[in-house]
Design a protein that fits this description.
The protein has 596 residues and is α/β, with parallel strands linked by helices. It folds into 3 domains: 321 residues, ABC transporter type 1, transmembrane domain (ABC transporter transmembrane region fold, Up-down Bundle), CATH 1.20.1560; 147 residues, 3-Layer(aba) Sandwich (Rossmann fold), CATH 3.40.50; 71 residues, Rossmann fold. The chain is built from 19 helices and 10 strands. A 6-stranded mixed β-sheet has the order 6-7-8-3-9-10, sandwiched between helices. A hairpin with a 2-residue loop joins strand 9 and strand 10. It starts with 12 loop residues before the first helix and ends with a helix. The N terminus is likely disordered.
Length: 596
């Protein structure tokens, strides 16, 4: 099971960071020309930046002549201003060129994850919390932008500038200037890596708690009516509070450990800068260095340690973003349990005859719910499946649609084993009206037209009329443009079911599956819709999952499921005459109707 609420395992930074970088690289190479130009502008900006202290030294030395007539060094001042302008210009050009790379990579990754999630099987989505998935995607895509920005705008410029500064100190001054500066940088980076890696466990735990709290909140709000029906507002708040309190404790530990790291980093920089400046001041006193040298060294150290001062924060952000991106890329690593074979042929429909041959199925870790079930639905026939709850009625429909794979046996359509067919072609040929109808939070028109995306307005309205929902729609203030609310909460159960029926009628596939399709309708609406379904069924091969037996008395065959297999089958009259399980179910419903 893929459950985001489970405690996260220890994060292997070396392995996972490399994995994330390998997965990120193709998105960057998609715009390699812009990456190259951004790198060129980055180098130009840093060269100009490091040249500024060199020119400043010459300016100070030119002005530091106490016994000579001073001449304003206009050329050097002009060069100083030009270098500052160039540094700013090249930085902005780098940012402008790289912006397209960053946002294009975000768009591609988000699109790929979203597309991939739709390829995963039903069991994956049943095991996951939607709130947790969306949170992983949101954090992951944002981390792409942040990580790219850090590398291009912080890490690479800082490393390049550090190399330039140490190189200038090495070439122009005593080797100890460069050695102490380099040792400070190495010591600083080493401490930062060690301490940050140690405290990353708190960040990972924070992500877990935040995802869990978000999932709980989304789940609670989606089930708002259920919460109110059972007066469980306090329970939901306490459940959310419990998770957020755990997040608070971990977040506090994360922050306090960060302050300790900041102090250690500041101490290393302070010691290094002090040592170098003491050596430079001693050189000035001994007349081995000029005042301009002293000022240049100080300016170079500022340029060296200013970006280094933020390196700790940047490194922590990188680690955070690697974790977030790893969670998102893990979604891409999930492989669907059900997919089309390579070069699988498309379903070729001629008669739409369905055959179940010795079909068995068991959910993961459970006993078989269906065992060696065999039956046929000939072209144009209507076959109903009835039985007690949990007998496997809806499971048969899901197996036909290939939401699940059969454990044994085979399902054929016009003699073709659906396991070896292109999955999309199979599902295009089947229309399903589920018992639990869920609508998009869009207009009524959108939800009906979803069955055939390019349908005309007349086709949509004709489908609504067949489903006996047209009069209700036309009475609404906004008619077909009325929004149905989250998961269709603004509609009654019967209204949602009729919209679902209209959607399938618009799709008009050769095979129809009605899974308790009229269970939420009142008697009058049921009769109207049933008449439409009966008319439609004559032109299609139809599988009906039924609880209300009055809706399937005209079926060509009724199959009674129980104890993992077919207990009996036949027409309505024949089954009543047999006085078996079907007759018992029928009599129970008749008695219940008489009591009402």
């Amino acid at each position: 099971m893929h459950n985001t609420d489970k405690p996260t395992q220890a994060y292997d930074f070396k392995v996972n960071d490399m994995k994330v970088l390998k997965k990120l690289l193709p998105y960057l190479l998609a715009m390699r020309a812009r990456v190259a130009w951004a790198t060129i502008f980055l180098i130009a900006a840093k060269l100009a930046n490091v040249a500024i202290p060199l020119v400043l030294k010459d300016i100070v030395d030119a002005l530091d002549h106490s016994n000579q007539l001073l001449i304003l060094p206009l050329g050097l001042l002009f060069a100083y201003g030009l270098l500052r302008l160039s540094s700013s210009l090249f930085n902005e050009l780098r940012d402008a060129v790289f912006a397209k790379v960053r946002y294009h990579a975000m768009q591609l990754i988000a699109l790929n994850v979203f597309k991939h999630l739709h390829t995963l099987d039903l069991s994956f989505h049943l095991d996951r919390r939607i709130g947790g998935i969306t949170r992983d995607i949101d954090r992951g895509t944002q981390s792409v932008a942040t990580l790219l920005s850090i590398f291009v705008f912080n890490i690479l410029p800082s490393l390049f500038e550090i190399c330039l500064v140490i190189g200038v100190l090495w070439v122009n001054y005593d080797v100890f200037f460069a050695s102490i500066s380099l040792a400070t940088v190495v010591f600083y980076i080493g401490l930062t890596l060690a301490i940050t890696t140690w405290r990353m466990k708190y960040r990972y735990q924070m992500n877990d708690m935040q995802s869990k709290a978000n999932s709980n909140a989304v789940d609670s709000l989606i089930n708002y009516e259920t919460v109110k029906y059972f007066n469980q507002e306090d329970f939901e708040v306490k459940r959310y509070e419990k998770t957020m309190r755990r997040w608070e404790n971990v977040a506090t530990k994360s922050f306090t450990s960060m302050t300790a790291l900041n102090f250690v980093q500041g101490s290393v920089i302070a010691i290094g800068v002090t040592l170098v400046l003491m050596m430079a001041a001693n050189g000035v006193v001994a007349a081995q260095l000029s005042l301009g040298d002293m000022i240049m060294i100080q300016a170079l150290l500022l340029q060296l340690f200013m970006p280094l001062g933020s390196l700790g924060i940047v490194y922590r952000q990188i680690k955070h973003n690697f974790i977030d991106m790893n969670n998102m890329f893990n979604l891409l690593d999930k492989q669907p349990a059900i997919s089309s074979d390579k070069d699988a042929p498309a379903l070729n429909i001629s008669q739409a005859k369905i055959e179940f041959k010795q079909v068995s199925f068991a959910y993961a870790g459970k006993q078989p719910i269906i065992n060696k079930v065999s039956f046929e639905i000939n072209s144009g026939q209507k076959v109903a499946i009835v039985g007690a709850s949990g007998s496997g009625k809806s499971t048969l429909a899901k197996l036909l649609f290939r939401f699940y794979e059969v454990s044994a046996g085979e399902i054929l359509i016009d003699g073709q084993n659906i396991k070896h067919l292109d999955l999309h072609s199979l599902q295009r040929a089947i229309g399903v009206v589920p018992q639990d109808t869920v609508m998009f939070n869009e207009s009524i028109y959108y939800n009906i037209a979803y069955g055939k995306r390019h349908a005309s307005s007349d086709e949509v309205k004709a489908a609504a009329k067949l489903a006996c929902i047209d009069e209700f729609i036309e009475q609404l203030p906004q008619g077909y443009e009325s929004r149905v609310g989250e998961r269709g909460l603004k509609l009654s159960g019967g209204e949602k079911q009729r919209l679902a029926i209209a959607r399938v009628l618009l799709k008009n596939p050769p095979i129809l599956i009605f899974d308790e399709a009229t269970s939420a309708l009142d008697s009058q609406a049921e009769q109207s819709v049933q008449a439409a379904l009966n008319s439609l069924s004559q032109q299609h091969t139809t599988l009906v999952i039924a609880h209300r037996l009055s809706t399937i008395i005209d079926s060509d065959q009724i199959i009674v499921l129980g104890r993992g297999g077919i207990q009996e089958s036949g027409t309505h009259d024949a089954l009543l005459a047999a006085q078996g399980e079907y007759a018992k179910l029928w009599n129970l419903q008749i008695d219940a109707a008489n009591i009402e």
